[in-house]
Amino acid sequence: MIETFDEHVWEARFRKKIESSDLENDPAHDLAHFERVVRTAREIAARELARFEVVLPAAWLHDLVNVPKNDPRRAQASRLSAQAALVFLRETGYPEEFHADIAHAIEAHSFSAEIEPLTLEARIVQDADRLDGLGAIGIARCFAVGGRLGRPFYDPADPWAKHRPWDDTVFTGDHFYVKLFKTAETLKTEAGRAEGHRRVEVMRRFLRDLGEELR
């Protein structure tokens, strides 16, 4: 770790930047989301012996520009966040040798951007963010976003899409099948895949219980 990288000093700056950013009152991308992603990224990075100088700023700044799920610019969100992060890192004097790798990790974390993570650090940040969409917290985030967009929990006539295509632009519950289970299959690190498997089981158990209640 470089001498000029004081983890606690920089993390305080990253946190302050997020706290002062416009999170658009989005419960799925609030400060707690950033904190969870950073914690998970830190844990995976320690196991994988990755560069904290890249992982920590990328995890803190990965959603610096928040584009709503139903916005046509959604696929550009990670690139916009990377650009904004670079501006912030230059302004605060963060070591320039890490800028390119931080920007790549931020760009590659997004599912919709479809950018392949080329470094260990990018794979870690991508896994950490995607894990936050899975498990118990993933269920909570899924329905929080659906409620914010005014979408019903499920299709009362056909909740399991037996006679229709899955469509998460209409029904919140469809999002598990349209994206979340697929996201779990994209996890790149060994630690990420193990945790992803555990969280997928949490979601499947929830859906089984939901099915029981819906008869």
Explain this structure.
By secondary structure, this protein is an all-alpha fold. The chain has two domains: 1-116, Cyclin A, domain 1 (Orthogonal Bundle); 133-215, Hypothetical protein af1432 (Orthogonal Bundle), CATH 1.10.3210. The chain has helices spanning 7-19, 31-48, 52-61, 77-92, 99-108, 120-131, 135-148, 175-184, 190-214. Helix 2 (31-48) runs antiparallel to helix 3 and helix 5 packs parallel to helix 6. The radius of gyration is 18 Å and the shape is globular.
Structural class determined from secondary elements: mainly alpha
How many domains, in number, for the residues?
2
Q: What is the CATH topology of the largest domain?
A: Cyclin A, domain 1
Backbone shape:
globular
Beta-strand fraction estimate: under 5%
CATH architecture level-2 label of the largest domain = Orthogonal Bundle
pLDDT averaged residue by residue: 92
For the termini, the CA-CA separation is 56 Å
- Provide the CATH top-level class of the largest domain: Mainly Alpha
**What is the strand tally?**
0
Rg (CA only): 18 Å
Residue runs with pLDDT of under 50 for 5 or more positions:
none
The SSE order reads HHHHHHHHH
Short description:
It contains 9 helices and no strands. Helix 3 runs parallel beside helix 6, helix 4 (77-92) runs antiparallel to helix 5 and helix 6 runs parallel beside helix 9 (190-214).
Describe the protein's topology:
Layout: H1 7-19, H2 31-48, H3 52-61, H4 77-92, H5 99-108, H6 120-131, H7 135-148, H8 175-184, H9 190-214
Helix pairs in contact: 1-3, 2-3, 2-6, 3-5, 3-6, 4-5, 5-6, 6-9, 7-9
